[in-house]
Amino acid sequence: MQVSPSLLSANFSNLEGDMEWLNRSDCDYLHLDVMDGVFVPNISFGFPVLKHVARLCQKPLDVHLMIVQPEKFINEVKALGAYYMNVHVEACTHLHRVVGQIREAGMHPAVTLNPATPISLLEDIIEDVDMVLLMSVNPGFGGQKFIQHTYDKIRQLRKLIDERGCQTKIEIDGGVTLDNAAQLAEAGADVLVSGSTIFGAQDPVEVIRQMKLC
Questions:
Q1: Catalytic: 173?
Q2: In what order do the strands lie in the sheet with 131-135?
Q3: What is Dmax (Cα atoms) for the chain?
Q4: Out of 18, 28, 33, 130, which one is annotated catalytic?
Q5: Are strands 84-88 and 131-135 parallel, antiparallel or unpaired?
Q6: How many other CB atoms are found less than 10 A from the CB of residue 102?
């Protein structure tokens, strides 16, 4: 199992301290949620903050854009040195074009589905993306309760990926804890995004280690 701690739950008064333990942890990525207050009912952080984080973080960046018209910011995300650039299916009128632009920019394209968005919408794009993020809460805020139907969606997505012979990873974001990590892995998840469970722990490095064993 791969783990991508969510910066949304970090201590912004001590980002350097959080990046220090994160860099020496076994986590695979750092998950960055960019919110615009339009696509989701909240605003998180912009590129000036992300540039500072990128300088401090030694882990690959998993950038999740919860914004309208994410294609406008491909160059800015690339400048961060992002590994994944993740856009919402619901936010892209011309999704195939955006995915192609992300890959042409040298990043790994990923797409996200909100909880009420069906897996069937991925049938024409699944072979073109390197990762699919399934939101297991409604996007916009941290600390929400996990939506149980997510397990079924993971199984549906895993079936689609296997039938097409893709190497696409499945990432889960929202309400991910040590209590449900193993069940998510069993359903077919490859990457777990976790915020408060990791950043709020007394020993976040150990929490990451335990999640990766799932």
A1: yes
A2: 2-5, 191-194, 169-173, 131-135, 108-113, 84-88, 61-66, 30-35
A3: 47
A4: 33
A5: unpaired
A6: 27
| Residue tagged active-site, from 28, 36, 62, 173 | 173
Cα(109)–Cα(169) distance, integer angstroms: 11
Is 33 in the active site?
A: yes
Predicted confidence pLDDT, tens digits, the chain (214 residues): 999 999 999 999 999 999 999 999 999 999 999 999 888 888 888 899 999 999 999 999 999 999 999 999 999 999 999 999 999 999 999 999 999 999 999 999 999 999 999 999 999 999 999 999 999 998 876 667 899 999 999 999 999 999 999 999 999 999 999 999 999 999 999 999 999 999 999 999 999 999 999 9
| pTM for this predicted structure | 0.96
Q: Is 5 helix (H, G, I), strand (E, B) or coil?
A: strand
Rounded to 5 degrees, φ, ψ at 75 are -65, -40
Contacts of 134 (CB under 8 A, 6+ apart): 112, 113, 150, 153, 154, 157, 170, 171, 172, 173
- Taking the CA atoms of residue 69, residue 75, residue 81 and residue 86 in that order, the dihedral angle to the nearest 10 degrees is 20
CA–CA gap between residue 29 and residue 193 (Å, rounded):
9
